[in-house]
Amino acid sequence: MKKVKCPNCGKEVEWENNPFRPFCCEQCKLADLSKWLNEEYAVVEEIVLEEEGDSGS
């Protein structure tokens, strides 16, 4: 059975039948969500929005 490391704590867990994948448990899943909500993680690529009415043609 395939095992992966939890991205939060590094514990090896089985991939199949894991309801929290890629995390090992609900606590690690919620810890990761908390980091996103507290802006400890961020997407670094700048997103460019098209102006309204700019169809590009």
TrEMBL record:
Gene Ontology MF terms in the entry: zinc ion binding
Source lineage: Bacteria, Pseudomonadati, Aquificota, Aquificia, Desulfurobacteriales
Annotated protein name in UniProt: DNA gyrase inhibitor YacG
Keyword Ligase: no
Keyword tags: Metal-binding, Zinc
A GO biological process held by the record: regulation of DNA-templated transcription
Zinc among keywords: yes
Organism: Thermovibrio ammonificans (strain DSM 15698 / JCM 12110 / HB-1)
